[in-house]
Design the sequence.
């Protein structure tokens, strides 16, 4: 027996211990996001630039969805509805106070964060399929509500509607520093970068460790002094915040929002994108987010029925279920291996 | 010191603990009994996961009844679980730091305690190794290190030696014996391994069908004919 355990020890010690510093990781995030965004900003315009801007909003949403699933194993199927909540709040705040754009975005984030926390309350008691169903129903409820009330367009009263003619509609203005489509895309890319850092900072510090304990065993977490309710709620708050920010950025992109863009199916697609990209790495959210927007945009561009997109996502889901790492996780693994090899050779 | 006062726990019609009375005062106490004797139930009552039907428990004179598990952690109660619960995706040091995040007085003292605990269990040099790369012995050590954070007053260990081989159990034994002095705490040890209990525990409480079968100096208790009959299965 001793011999066996000795062997295990030797084996474990021989396994490569990845020594990648936080600074290296941070540089990698900036480099990858910078490179992809740079190429998009330099080559795209009009239709595609708009789609990639939306894709980055999708990335922000996926970051939150991946946080919930990867850190706590919670399946939330209402994240795109929270984008709608964030959009609604930011439009409401914009038309009431005309604050600087950054505050409008923050308001959207905070609004969706609060609603996300409330919608997350069922997660204190349930998980898995039941939580997925409850959150999906919340997403449906939101759609029903927003189809009836519509998004604020600068009219009087709380709902801010302007009547049937629609002539008096007021658009939400983009900030002066990001008025052009390209500048606005770069602005959204920067916010996405901040979003990635927000999530990574959570994953690598106290909340991330607390979530890890809760995920492993809730009783153990309680016996370790973790405030389980607080940390679960906090995860929903962060995920909601990211979705809300995405909603405000969408509102800024179009100047207004349309209720039809917030169907519950979109929340399901957010989750599929999360699995497809990989829920344990920022790269997964980035690639998953871009892909989930890119494919439908491509179908529209080719004049193909967009429902074909659902078939694509269905197939993609089958693939994702086979590989929990996802595309982003696989690529991260590959990058880490190459980096360790390179470093090893450099150091001789 | 742990005081247990006519404690009864019922699961449906079954009395998992049945009017149990005991004072655990020794720095290291053993808790043994056949399967289903109520050992883990007692640990669950002490740590606040199971609400007793009647009776009370107290920690160093402070009544625990009605306190949430988290409040009990705040009072200095620590426990391990039968299965080891090391998080695979966190390193050894992060696994222990995750406890310090919530029980240490300050961030600085937390970091110091984590280092002390990991050095104590002999994982000082393996601190940055991911949980999934640790072997079973090392994982058990991480579990023990987790209980040593934040000035524990009483540590309840549920089978810390499960799955370990002989030489590892030896190392574990020496380590456990040092804990009360090194960390100024009381240790309650639950284990099936009568040898481990005999070599480490000063006093031992024997449970059988939720009742106290014996309590006293370990050797005397293990030699008690009633205990041998019920637990060791021989006369």
Sequence:
């Amino acid at each position: 027996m001793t011999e066996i355990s000795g062997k295990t020890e030797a084996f474990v010690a021989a396994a490569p211990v990845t020594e990648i510093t936080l600074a290296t990781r941070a540089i990698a995030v900036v480099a990858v996001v910078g490179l992809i965004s740079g190429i998009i900003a330099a080559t795209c315009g009009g239709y595609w630039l708009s789609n990639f801007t939306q894709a980055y909003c999708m990335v922000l949403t996926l970051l939150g969805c991946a946080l919930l699933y990867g850190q706590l194993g919670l399946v939330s199927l209402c994240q795109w509805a929270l984008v709608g909540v964030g959009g609604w709040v930011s439009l409401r705040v914009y038309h009431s106070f005309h604050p600087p754009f950054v505050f409008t975005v923050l308001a959207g984030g905070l609004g969706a964060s609060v609603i996300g926390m409330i919608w997350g309350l069922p997660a204190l008691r349930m998980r898995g399929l039941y939580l997925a169903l409850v959150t999906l129903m919340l997403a449906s409820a939101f759609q029903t509500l927003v189809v009836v009330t519509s998004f604020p367009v600068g009219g009087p009263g709380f709902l801010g509607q302007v009547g049937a003619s629609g002539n008096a509609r007021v658009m939400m203005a983009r900030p002066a520093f990001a008025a052009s489509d390209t500048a606005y895309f770069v602005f959204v890319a920067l916010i996405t970068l901040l979003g990635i850092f927000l999530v990574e900072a959570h994953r690598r510090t106290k909340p991330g460790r607390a979530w890890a304990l809760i995920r492993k065993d809730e009783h153990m977490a309680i016996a370790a002094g973790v405030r389980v309710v607080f940390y679960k709620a906090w995860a929903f708050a962060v995920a909601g915040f990211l979705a809300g920010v995405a909603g405000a950025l969408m509102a800024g992109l179009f100047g207004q929002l349309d209720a039809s863009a917030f169907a519950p199916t979109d929340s399901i697609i957010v989750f599929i994108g999360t699995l497809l990209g990989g829920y344990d790495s920022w790269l997964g959210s980035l690639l998953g987010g871009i892909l989930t927007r890119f494919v439908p945009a491509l179908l529209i561009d080719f004049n193909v029925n967009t429902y074909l997109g659902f078939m694509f996502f269905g197939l993609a889901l089958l693939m994702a279920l086979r590989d929990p790492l996802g595309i982003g996780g696989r690529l991260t693994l590959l990058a880490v291996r190459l980096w360790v090899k390179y470093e090893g050779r450099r150091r001789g | 010191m742990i005081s247990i006062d006519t404690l009864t726990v019922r699961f449906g019609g079954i009395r998992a603990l049945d009017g149990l009375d005991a004072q655990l005062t020794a720095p290291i106490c053993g808790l043994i009994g056949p399967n289903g004797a109520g050992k883990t139930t007692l640990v669950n009552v002490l740590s606040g996961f199971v609400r007793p039907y009647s009776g009370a428990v107290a920690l160093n004179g402070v009544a625990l009844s009605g306190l949430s598990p988290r409040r009990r952690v705040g009072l200095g109660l620590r426990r391990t679980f039968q299965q080891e619960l090391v998080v695979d995706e966190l390193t050894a040091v992060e696994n222990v730091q995750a406890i310090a995040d919530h029980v240490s007085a300050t961030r600085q003292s937390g970091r110091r305690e984590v280092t002390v605990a990991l050095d104590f269990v002999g994982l000082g040099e393996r601190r940055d190794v991911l949980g999934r790369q640790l072997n079973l012995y090392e994982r058990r050590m991480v579990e023990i290190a987790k209980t040593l954070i934040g000035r524990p007053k009483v540590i309840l260990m549920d089978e810390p030696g499960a799955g370990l081989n002989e030489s590892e159990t030896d190392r574990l034994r020496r380590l456990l014996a040092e804990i009360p002095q090194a960390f100024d705490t009381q240790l309650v040890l639950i284990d099936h391994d009568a040898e481990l209990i005999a070599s480490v525990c000063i006093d031992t409480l024997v449970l059988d069908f939720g009742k106290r079968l014996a309590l006293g100096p370990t050797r005397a208790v293990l030699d008690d004919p009633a205990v041998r009959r019920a637990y060791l299965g021989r006369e």
